[in-house]
What does this fold into?
Amino acid sequence: MTMRLDPRRLLDLLAIARHGSFSGAAEATNVSQPGLSQNIAQLEHGLGVRLLDRDRHGARLNDFGKALALHAQALECLLERAKEETRLLSLGLEGLLSIGITPVTAVGLVPKALEVLLRTAPNVQVSVTEDIDDRILAMLRSRELDLIVSRLGVNPVYPDIETEPLVFADWSLIMRAQHPLASQPSVSLKDLGDAKWVLPAGGSAFRVHMETVFDRAGIHWPTRAISTNSILAIKSIVMNTDCVTLMAPQLVEVECEVGRLCAVKLSDLEPLRPVGLMWRSNEQLSPIASRFVQEVRRIAHAGGPLVG
It folds into this structure.
């Protein structure tokens, strides 16, 4: 007879993983330590495997425990989501849409799709999270997010995640319109050894993506650089100095239109990674998420590739 997993025991396992010990988890969850130990013992017995490695320093998940903890975290997020959805419905709202993005999708695709969605469904609460790729992917897998709009092919392939490429997003050299290189039809990163740069600081999705560009061009990360994680500050510094930066042209469309910035193509980039959708496989999107996806697809297909 197959054992049915008790959701409460999964959450107990998650608490131990977070607090690193039975005593810490018992205190945090307001459960007695003997009761918590018994719950985990029953869980391990029913599954036929050990989930934790115990020593005098505490308790740590083994490989079986880590795999199960991912599902426990998803369960926790699902319960929190159900609670929040109920609260929103009680307030007369249609529900919640949680989207993960990276910088290139923060301009264009996502805002345009949200504009249409909120015009037709004004009683929707929307949450947009920007972070590095692996973090928002982890949030998607644990059900903290409904879907992601981002560059594809950056993360490992997971069987529980489905992807759909939509458009291509380029990188360009961004400079003020009066910069000496502004009249060039294209430039090579390898020829910019003397350039002064404004670049994202560590820890951001923007930085991770940009490091990949330099790495694939075969050059080191510039040392003569101003660092900031504010895209607004990067653009402002470039507008007022001879510093340059890298961005998708879509992020500076407005500034280029009014003559404050200029985007010059890079000649030494490898084939571009597509921008597209990611969602959990074998799981139906909510009606709100489905409507958002339809708008993203419509905008992407109507505009064609983001690079002309």
